[in-house]
User: Fold this.
Amino acid sequence: MYGNAADHPDRERRYPSDMTDAEWAAIRPLLPVPPWLKGRGEQPEGYCHRQLLDAIRYLVAGGISWRAIHADFPDWARVYAFFRRWREHGLITEFHDRLRGKVRGREGREAEPTAGIIDAQSVRAAASVPAASRGYDGGKKVPGRKRHIVTDTLGLLLVVCVTAANIGDRDAATGLLQRLRRLHRDITLVWADGGYTGSLVDWCRDKLALTRQL
Assistant:
């Protein structure tokens, strides 16, 4: 049993999406610690987390289905179970936030940002995307979905939501900025373009103590 805290000694880098030894050394101490290593029950992993993470990276890089994961990796069902458990317990977000803090520290910044940048982008959706979650962005002439994001000033992701493309930027911004305020209490300034004007500016100042700036 390898779990989070052990390296698999015969692990070889087979695919471009596999982590290098340097990448693994950087992220290994940032990984969430599984309950069994803290003496809180559950069974140890049967595979090193590096193997499981490389399998997920392979899937994302290739845009393939879970069942198409190469036989060099653990069985797809084991990989999916690992991913699902991390998602359901918020460990993906926790891991992402730790990585973001490390990158900010390397750039000479505090781990928690004090300013953010909000924007949105409409993207075409494949025919397989359910019609209920698609829309038409009349301004951009794009049928599909819209991703609304807030990043820090380095471009590192803070919060994100995905809507149908017909949802206006200001409408989506309300919930997005509420999440930003809840998750990142140090932020006091949000940079935005002309799509985020009107009553949203006063609402940000009065309800969230956020200053919106062009």
